[in-house]
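Weekly puzzle thread! Below is a chain. First person to post its structure in token form gets bragging rights.
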Amino acid sequence: MKLSEFPDDVRKYLIPEPSGSMFYRCLRCKGEFDIDDLLYTCPSCGEILMLHHKETGETQDIEGALWRKLFNYRRMLNFNPLKGIFRYYEFIAPIIPLESIIYLGEAHTPLVMANQNLEKLVGLPFYFKYEGLNPSLSFKDRGMACALSFLTYLAKNKNIKDLLTICASTGDTSASGALYSAYLTNLIKSAVLLPKGKVTMQQLSQPLGSGATVLEMPGVFDDCMKVVEGLSEKYNVALLNSKNSWRILGQESYSFEIAQDFDYQVADKIVVVPIGNAGNITAIISGFLKFLKANIIHELPKIIGVQSDHADPVYRYYLEDDPSKQQFEPVKVKPSVAQAAMIGNPVSMPRVIDLVREYNQAAGQKRIFVVQVTEQEIMDAMIIANKNGHIACTQGGESMTGFIKAKKEGLISKGEIGVLAATAHVLKFSSFQEMYLSNRFPPEFEVKPREEFKNTPITIEPKDLRKLPQAGRPLQGKDLDQFIKASAEEIARILNLKEKI
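Winning reply:
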């Protein structure tokens, strides 16, 4: 749709100009710092940071109704920088020039409604939001599009060359960081740190294919994170984990999309998300708060965070309702099928604590809850979802069983609708699915397949055949006729087929 075809009241806002200024604010000492330096923690007290925008210009007085109209019309705008997360430019990073924005097809992932069978099984209607349909097959692309767009802007502004990005990862962050860095090959190089043996082969292949330097080390994600934190403090590298506040901004688009896809009516929605490093739930909370303050939405949805009992520090923290008695303690993780959530000391925990308090105050009641699930429940839910036409990853299974657990615990009311995060593509975790279906899970995962879900290939071996087809040596004539007849009869027997009358 051409710009001239849009209504007058939105046309002047459709293609935004950079406006205002942005700054880091420390969660503890409230110190404010300029964005010209790559900061991840407060230079004064060492606490984690959040990004804020000082508004100037005509957009600061836009009413909620006009924002809604503007975002709806931007859906029809054929302009790459505003197609992805930056459809909501003014609410993400409005100081970045449009020519610095990186768009690889991320965001605006579909909401797919559970079929009637699955809805009946769970007991409530719900949708999966398929984050696995992002370019690198996970939700991390939202944050990476923002972080790399800012790095592009900063590098051009300060004439920085040969910038190296680095991240610790359980798989998805490394794939996303490597992909977006590869797109900026002449400007940025990428290195990733992975816990050796703790990442699926499918996930490992992604950063390798994007040309990143992949470094494997002993331990788990938390150990890799400590190393990259040390590197970012001492060396000239750009950290791409969710400690990077620009990542959080990009991931806020998840909330904006949910609001827009439900015509900004979210009071009856239950947004369910797995918690790992706590960056995603941080972004989701922050995103809905921004839309509430701008009068784009009028009420806040419930948010359910989910953790496996193999990695549950956030769940344990919120077991205590009295804020004065809450005390965060990292946990020692055990192997988990929800690898992205296998984190015992989440970097964004201070952000979560701060934002949960603000969210509940803004709602006038408790609207954020955390539930705990088992590894067995996660895998069962993933298999059940996919047997009902979905493409849920293990984290999607974690969301679904967390939704079920929240219902059992009375956290969800009749008439409410679930929005479940399937954070990555199921094919990234095909090895876990194969282990489940064939009953080959290592004991430390504490997963046994339900008997009715076991599923392995059946070999068709027609008996009494003189010849069988081979690669490069196809059957012909009578031999081919006999092979087709015998194979068809064997398959009909296995599938219990009835002959046509």
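Puzzle host: Confirmed. Bonus trivia for everyone else. Residues 17 and 97 are 7 Å apart (CA to CA).
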